[in-house]
Structure formats: C-alpha cells, structure tokens
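Q: Could you fold this chain for me?
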Amino acid sequence: MSTMATVAGDEESDEESSSSCHTNETLLEEFRTTWQKELQQSQAALVGLNLNKESEESEAERLFLQGTEYERIGKVFEAIHHYRRAVQLVPDIEFRVRPLLAQQEDEVPSEAGVTHQESEELPESPAEEEDLSNVDLTLRFQNALGRCGKVCERVADEKVLQTCAHLSDLPIEIILYIFKWVISRDLDVRMLEQLSVVCRGFYICARDPELWRLACSRIWGVSVGSPKGMGYISWREMYQERHRVNFHGCYISKTSYLRYGENSFQDQFYRPVHLIEYYRYIRFFPEGRVLMLTTPDEPINCVGKLKSRTPQKKEVLAGEYELHGETVMIVLKRSGQRRQKIQSKRHPNFYVDNDANTFYLEMRILTTAKRRFCQLEWKQYSVIQFRNKTEFTTDFELLPNQYPPLRFSRVKSYHSESDAPL
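A: Sure. Below is the predicted structure, expressed as structure tokens.
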C-alpha cells in the first residue's frame, strides 16, 4: 500500500509541474507578442516623425529660398514674412541653407553690366549690425523705391477687402499734401520726424525740400534767404541749425525773491518778510504772433490759456516778434484794454486807451547740450506807459535773481489737432 501511494504522489507532482511549465510558456509567448507589437508601433511612430521632420525641413528650406529671391528683387516685406515662417519651422534653417546658396551663386554666371552692389551692402550675418554712420540713407532708399515704384507696399498676407484702397495706391502728391496737414500751420515738425521712421517711403517724403522750404519761409518770411547763400546744405539743415524759437510748447521761468513788509504798529521792532513767487510764460506762433502771461499759478493751470491765438483773458499780453540772428525782439500789449470815451463837441464818439502799456523785450536764443533753442536769456526789458497823453518809459535792471532765463517746455495739447495745412 505504501508503494502504491508513493507512485500516485509522483504522478500528481509530475502533472502539476507540467501544467505550471505550460502556463509559463503561455505567459512568455504573450509577453513576446505584446513586446513585438509595441516595438513595431514605436518604429512606425519614429518613421512618421522622421518623415514629418523631413517635410518641415523641406518646407522651411523652400520658404527661406523664396525669401532670398524676394529680397534680391527688392520686396523686403515679403522676404521678412517668408524668413519668419521658415525660422518658426526650423530655427537653424539659415545655417543649413547657406551651403546651398553658396553653390547656387557659384553656378549662376553674372550677367554683363550687372554688379552685386546690393549683396555687398547687406551684412554678412543677421547677428551683425550694419554701420550706417557714413551711409547716405536718402540716396539708398531712393534707389530701393525706384525699383518698386511706390512709396510703400502692402503686406503679402494682409487681409483686406479688394474694394478698399491702400495708402500705397495714392500718388506721391497726395501723400505730400497729407504731410502738410500733419505739419499744419503751427509747424509741428516733431511729428514729421516721427513719420520718417515708419518706412523708407515716409523717410524720403519727410525730407522733401518743398516741405522744409515752406517751413523756413513761414518762420523767417521775406528774410529767409537761400540755404547755399547762408552756408547750409539744404532747407532742412537751415531749419535745424539757424537760430529760431520752438512752437510746440511755451517758455517758462519761475522767479522767487524776498520782500520786506511794513513794521507792525504794535511792535516797531518786528518787520515781516514775504516770499514772492511767480511764473512767466511766453508762447510763439510761426506767423510772428506771441503771447505772454505773468501769474503765480502753476504751469498745469496756465498753459491752456495760451492755446488760442486770440486769448480772451485780460491778463494775457498779445503782440508780435521778429528774429534777428540769435536775438528775438518782442512787442506786447495787454489784450482787452479798457477804453474811455471822451466827451467832445467836435468828436462825440472819440475813444482812447486808458492806461495803455506797451512792453518791449529783447532776448537771446540759447542752445544747450541736449536741446536746441530751449532757453531765452534777457537782454533788455522796458515798458512805455501813456497817461493823460503823456509817455513814460521805464527800463528794468535785469538782475539774475529777478529775471532768470526762460526754459522751453513741450505742451502736447497745442498740437493735438490741425486746423490748416502748411
């Protein structure tokens, strides 16, 4: 019996071991099948990624080469657009395409009479900045605009209706007339300089000699002369270098001094001291008109009173000025002076100015290291009064503490709108 039991136990153990081996083989086969599927999927994904990468590289190469062709014919905006799209796909596309470009330049023979001046003017690498200190930008931009024939061009992918007109469709005469409205009769030349940095076409239009000739004629009138006769290269240089006043703001000075008061009736040894502070504002207009205001109010509350050419405030003095070299001569009268009617049998409606005052100012125009013509220094100041048909002249002593120089300050509201062209 013991022998039979032992044999039966051996058979059962053999069956268990064979079943466990079969199970292990099944699991191993399933693992191999799963691993092979994952390996095939990863290989397929890698192949697809390589194909996608190759397609992106080919597309970037095509865009970059097309951009170089646009740049060669002078279409800068289209070239920049294609360069940007190529770099977005492949950041180092330029270094990959450079050998191809060099090979194309070696294969294509140069035509007779054609030079490569444009390629020589471009920098060797985009990272290097071109030295424009000795380059005539006006001549360079004129040559570039001569190839395209327009002041400016549309952007290649600009989404606009076909019925809408673009600024590039306007003739050069209309654009220059728009520039005259920008400058306006107030000579907002600062805005003209800002327009010149928009594009190459605006840079050329902003340096049109006729615009600067009109500006100089409006300032100096019949005594404007000619640029060559006065030692200037152009009308623009005359406007910038010749002594004049600024129009896009006003000249301001602050005067402070101490003044003793009367002795107190209670204490004869006590004498008060008063601190006197006031401002003087002067604004010039191109046609020769000038306004002056003297008040203790701060500039933020007073510059608006000098905006109009015909102020309604009685405290504003209005008059005229003339430029003589570096000196400006000003004659002012109080606006809205009171007029007194004189009873006379011979002239029943005869009026005379009551206490009419005339102010004569002579100032020197100064230039600092940072700004041109930004200071006015006192040279002479006198007042002529008429009282009872008698003239009284008073000349003031121009002490530095009582008559400090006036410094120019820009006022944006003066040129916020244009009411007439240049």
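A (continued): The longest strand covers residues 375-387.
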